[in-house]
Write a structure and sequence with these properties.
- With about 190 residues, the protein is an alpha+beta fold.
- It has a domain of about 120 residues: 3-Layer(aba) Sandwich (Protein Transport Mog1p, Chain A), CATH 3.40.1000.
- The protein contains five helices and seven strands, in the order H-H-H-E-H-E-E-E-E-E-E-H.
- Strands 1-2-3-4-7-6-5 form a seven-stranded mixed β-sheet.
- Strand 2 and strand 3 form a beta hairpin.
Length: about 190
């Protein structure tokens, strides 16, 4: 006997067999109803998990960078210092500079003076002092002509170390240097808490 998929059972007629075969060829079996499929919760899908992981990683990375970013005046001071790094000279009166640095009682500017001048730093007039401390390095100090609000802090930004200190007369000073040792030497001269 041939192995036939549509073999006749004893109670079927030839007509039944042919009808069943024609219907099997004519109609596509189709998909089972959706209710039979397993439903995966949205958060358990791998693609959704990957998207969420990428969003969390980018958000925390971006937030970390922005959290370490110094205040705008400090960023402006770092940029200004990089443009005037090679300038040398004394273009302001030493007593006016010392007064703005909170060192009015002193007669000389600390360190070996490289540059003293007034500059426009993002709409704020500042006294710009670049000085060299032996065995520490070059430091640029910005003293603001008018009162500004800057909280003390320090960090590294744009290949420069920076620090905001409060001068002896209570005004903020922005210190910018290439090394931490230079900042430490400058802080000892300008900071009222040192």
């Amino acid at each position: 006997m041939e192995n036939n998929e549509f073999a006749m059972s004893p109670d079927e007629t030839e007509f039944d067999l042919r009808s069943r075969a024609e219907l099997a060829l004519a109609c596509d079996p189709g998909q089972p109803p959706a209710s039979l499929f397993r439903r995966t919760p949205v958060l358990r899908r791998m693609s959704v998990q990957r998207v969420l992981a990428a969003v969390l990683l980018l958000g925390s990375g971006g937030g970390g960078v922005l959290a370490m970013r110094p205040p705008e005046l400090v960023r402006g001071a770092i940029d200004h210092e990089s443009h005037e790094r090679m300038l040398r000279g004394s273009f302001v009166d030493t007593s006016a500079l010392l007064r703005h640095l909170g060192l009015a009682s002193r007669q000389t500017v600390p360190g070996s003076v490289q540059l003293m001048r007034r500059c426009d730093l993002g709409g704020q007039w500042v006294y710009h002092l670049t000085t060299y401390f032996d065995k520490a390095g070059m430091v640029t100090v910005f003293a603001f002509d008018r009162p500004v609000t800057l909280s003390e802090g320090s960090g590294w930004w744009g290949s420069a170390y920076w620090q905001v200190v409060t001068s002896h007369d209570g005004h903020p000073l922005v210190l910018v240097a290439d090394t931490k040792a230079a900042l430490t030497a400058a802080r000892a001269q300008f900071d009222r808490s040192a």
